[in-house]
Each structure stands twice: as C-alpha cells, then as structure tokens.
Amino acid sequence: MRRLGWFVALLVLTTAAPVEAARIGEMADWNFGSQAARFFSLQDPSVRYALGGSMLLGLCCGLMGAFLVVRKLALMGDALSHAVLPGVALGFLWGMTKNPAAIFAGAVGAGLLGAVVVQWIRATTKHREDAALGFVLSSFFGVGIVLFTMIQNLPGGAKSGLDGFMFGQAAALGPEDVWLLAGVTVLALGAVGLFYKEYVLTSFDEGFARSLGWPVKLYHYSLMLLLAFAIVSALQAVGVVLVSAMLVIPAAAAFLLTDRMGAMLAWSAGFGMLAGAAGAFFSFTGRSLPTGPFMVLAAAALFVLALLFAPKHGMVGRLWRRRSRAARIRRENTLKAIYHVMEDGGFREEVVAVGNVAARRRETAAGARREVAELQRAGLATEEGGRVAFTPEGWQRACEIVRNHRLWELYLTNAAQLAPDHVHDDAEVIEHMLGDETVRRLERRLNYARRDPHGKLIPGLADLAAGAPPSERAAGYAEKGAA
Amino acid sequence: MMKDFSTTAPPLEVHDLTVAYDRRPVLYGIDLTVPAGSLTGIIGPNGAGKSTLLKAVLGLLPLSAGWVKIFGGPLAQNARRTGYVPQRESVDWDFPVNVMDVVLMGRYGHLPPGRRPGRADREIARACLDQVQMLPLARRQIGNLSGGQRQRVFLARALAQESDLYFMDEPFAGVDAATEAAIVDLLREMKARGKTVVVVHHDLSTARDYFDRLVLLNVRLVAAGPTAEVFTPELLQKTYGGRLTILSDVVQSLGEEP
What we know:
By secondary structure, chain A is mainly alpha-helical. Chain A has helices at about 1-15, 20, 30-40, 45-70, 75-85, 85-95, 100-125, 130-155, 165, 175-195, 195-205, 205-210, 215-240, 245-255, 260-285, 290-310, 315-345, 355-360, 365-375, 390-415, 425-430, 435-445, 460-465, 470-480; strands spanning about 350-355, 380-385, 385-390. Chain A folds into two domains: about 1-15 and about 35-310, ABC transporter involved in vitamin B12 uptake, BtuC, CATH 1.10.3470.10; about 320-480, Arc Repressor Mutant, subunit A. Chain A has 24 helices and three strands. Chain B has a single domain, classed as 3-Layer(aba) Sandwich (Rossmann fold), CATH 3.40.50. Chain B is globular. The interface of A and B includes residues 201, 205 and 212 of A.
C-alpha cells in the first residue's frame, strides 16, 4: 500500500510541475565541476543554508534515532514521519503560503495525533504496536496525499512548492528553515544532555525507573515530542518519505560500532551530519535533484561500511578472526602430531621426519610440508631436509595442547562418567578452547593427575616452563614414561 | 538511614489488594504485612500472581482495589528506601551499556533530575560489584554475560540503591549453582544488616531453607507467616491443589523428617 502511495505521489508531483520542465533547457550550462566549486566555496548563501540545514537535521535526527533504535521503536519514526503529511497540507491551506511556523504547528499536531492513535489502538484493542503503526502510517499518509492533490488543483497551488516536502529539496531551505532546525537541534541536544541518565534508564529498564518513582511517561512523551520536532523541521530538506531513514540508518550504523550509549549517540549524530552534508552536495551539484534520496544513500553507504568494518561486530573482522582461529587450530594440531611422533619414539629423537607427521595427521606429504612451513613462519618449529624440530616456544605450545587434551579426557571420564573411548573427539575440539584459568581448575579438580584415561603421560607444569632445551626435558619424559 | 523499626510502621503493608487483567482478577483481596528485617519468600503455582503482586506493590500495575503502604506511607514518598530486582528477561541485554553503567543505575534514585552520578556513587557501585564478585567484569557489555552473571549485575544494582526494603522477582530462575549459593549468602547478609527482603520464588524444594517467612499465594492469599508454621502439607496442598507431583515428594519428605 505504501509503495502505491509513493507512486501516486510521484505521479502527482511530476505531472503537476511544468516549471521543472523549463529547466531542461538550462541543462546545457550546467557543469559538475563548477557547481562543486561553488558548493565548496560557500559563497552562495543558498549553499550555506542547504549545507547548514542538512547537517543540523542529520545531527538532530541522529540523536533522536539512537534512542528509537535502542528502544526498538525504529518503526515509530517511520509512522510519525508519514503521519505529519496532512498537517503540512493543512498548515499550507491556513494561509495559502509556505509559512514555516504554520506548517510546523500543523505537522507537529498531526504527528502527535498519530502517536496518540497508536497508543489508543494498543491500549483498547488486542493489536500490538506493529498493526497500529501500519494503520496510522498508511491512513495518515493517504489523507495527506489527498490534501496535496487538492492543493495542486487550487489556483496557484501548482506553485505551492509543497512538492519539496515529499522527497526533500535542501536548495529550497531559507533562513527561517535553518533557524528552525537550529532551534530544534539545540533543544534536542539540551534535553538529551541534561536528562541523559533519565532517558537512558527509561529506555533500558522502564520497570526499574518506575520503581524509583520517576515520571516515566513524561520522559517517554518528551522524547516523542522532540522526535516530532526533529521530523517536522527536517521535512523540507529530506522529505516525508525518507526522513525515517535519517532517524534509523545512522543510529543503526552507530549501534554496530560501539557498546556504550554515549558513544552511540556521538557516532549516530556524526553519521547523520556526514550524510546530510553529502545529500546537500549531490543535490546542489546535480541541479534540481531531490536531497532526501542522496542523504539516505550516503547514510546507507556509511551503514554498509560499519557492517563490514566495525571492530567488534563487523563482518570483515569476524571473518578474519574466524580464519585466524582456524589457522591457530591447524597449527596446534600439527604441533600435537609432532609431539605424538616424538612420544611414539620414546622421546629419544629431538627431530622428526615430516613424512611421519603426515602419516600421523592422515595428510598427504605436500599437505604436511605446508603445515610445517606454517609452523616455521610462526616461529614454532624449524625444518630442513624433510626433518622438523620444535623451537622452545613450539615445544611449550605442543605440551600445552597435549596437556589440555589429556586433562579434558580425564575430566570427562572421571567427572562426567564417560567411557574412555567416548572422550577423544570432544577433547579434539575443547583442547583449543581451554583458557589458562580453566586448565588450573581442571588440574586442581583432577589432583594434578599424571596419566590420561588411556594411560598416556600428561605433560607436567615443569615441562611447560621455558628454559632447558627440549632434548633434556624429553629425556626426563622417556624415563618417567618407562617407569 | 538506620531507623528503629520497632516503633515505626512495617516496611510493607497490603490491604485488600486486587489486580485484574481484562476484568479477570489475577490477585484478589490480598491482606499482607511483612515485618522489618525478615526474609520473605512468595511461593505458589504458575499463574498464581506472584510477580503480579510485586509489580502491583511497586506501582507498576494499576490496582483494581485496595491499598499498599511502604513504611507507613505511599511508595512515592519512600521510593528511595525501596529496592527492586526485576526479572532478567524484562530488559534487552543487547542495550549499549556495560556492567558498571547498570550498577550505577542503582544510584539514580538518590540523584535529582539532570544530575549525573559522581565519584562517591562510583565508589559505592564498585563496592557492590565486588560484593557479588563481578568487579573484574565491570567494563563488559551486558550481553556478554552468562545468566548467572546477569543476575549478579541486577543484584549489585539493587545493593547500590542502599534501600531498606527489597523486592526481587525470581532471582533464582535459570542461574547456575554457584550463583544460587552466592545469592543465598547475599540474602542472609542483607537480613543480618536489618534489611527486609521479599523474593518471588518458584522452587518449592528450596523455599523452606532459604526463607524465614513464606507467603503462599494462589490468586488469593492462602497463608503468610513464619516458614515453620506455614510450610505444612495442608497449606501447600491448598496452594498448589492436586496438580503438582513435586508437591507430593516434598510433602512426603516433610512427613519423614522428625
């Protein structure tokens, strides 16, 4: 239904805008480079208004959007922004001019009415929020489209300039609009700055806030009022249809970047400003292009970047960590295989043939050579002429991993009462995950046992300490193993 | 805020409390007095209205009838003396706050609007985190915690409230054995310091050991009083009806003990 609404709106706007067509002829003079130069010189007052207004709206929407996203109310922004449309039309009809004050008042009134209707549907019917939001969004928007069409058909209505409200026209921003945006932004910054702890607690844990005796409803509705202000003041620059994107996308990107609310607010506001500036730039350089879509595209690009490159939650980082973990597990398995070959030989040899490692790993000779080369790069072993030897660090890591494996097997057979032939596969996985602390706990629990369920010796703590060369310790092992 | 409770009103007094969802009563005509310094467990079958009772007392749900007095007055007057541990599932654990942020929220009731927590509040929050053995996790995002650790964060937040009367909603639900033992120790310590604690509890088998007073609830109040007096086969039968097999085990064990 919404798609259809947009389509109708587009039709109305394109067919009823013959003024735009006259500009086609001017396209010949238009030149991207000179326009960009004009934009960055900031000489033109209209550029200053467009840029300033767009950045203010990005800041304001980013701030409010962060609260919407953490409260899981992202759709509320969408519903409110569509619900203001009839108010815009009525504000225009009031004086048949684009008087910012009248339009602001009408739009805020319509938005708040929409919010109240959502609450009312939720409270009195069995519908949840989503159905209520869907109803308010589409029906208010429908009323708005009807009113807009009526205005276009009125004498003088075609020149109303209301079409800018649909998709945004930053170039049409006047000083009054920018002052309005500045006022709303200051108000939002002030409220969030002053009542930061109140807004965060009521967003995080409403029940706890109410148990403190706080007026939770007051904080909720003041936030909704600020949201309505932000939406309405942003309309002229970004348009009804896409203003919700400026609320949600910068905040969603910021959410991926940080785990702290304060930082999230800062990132979200920053992304909003960046997207606003980008939207103003493209709208100005590409003559008569609507601003809203470009702002939203810029915000979406920032979101994709955050999705890919965020340090903790980013996909690239996650993929890289997974790959490096897989590489570590592969290295540890090779170390373990070398240890096993040495153990089978009673630790008499300090050097092991790569072919034996391959057999132990059930690998091809080439595969084993690759794995040994990887160990060499990591400084855990050295290889020459098909024979491989541990470095002290490699010996220590090998002992650790074998120790983890055998301790875990012993733990499973002792504590979990599993049969000795059921524990190997589990230990194969767990051995790579055990942290030092867990290993110490296992040792205590198992009374510093020396042998695993299969009767094999568990490498002791003394063997893990670096110092003596592997051969000496290995000799000690062979004796103990024989005993 | 140490007061002589013997001469003042009881921490919690409930009279004819009735709560209804869609006109269907979920709590009906509850009269209850919780004496100062007691450790009270609210037990009853699922749907008995245990959590509803806590929420109604805290003013989180509208009352259909009756009244609630906290330290002899309305809750709003004594909100600072009242601490609350909500159910763990009631919040979004992906919320961008860390453990320390949440514990500091316990101080918010002591701060006027617009004032941020200061150094003294941080010190208190650190001490409370230490008390539940969570200090090393202070900077973790809260989603990055186990169920037991999440419960400890909520308990530390309640401790930071420095209240005299505490309400805890199912603090033992879904926690590991170590956390359960830690919570029991904490409850006893709070009692020793003269705090009054009211706990919604779902596990009948441990209720007798954990609490010195019990409230048996099943929409109506079945019984309330010292554990030794109300934890009897007859009253439990009356509370749980015939629909609980655990009950018969517990009743049996009651009979076996001297």
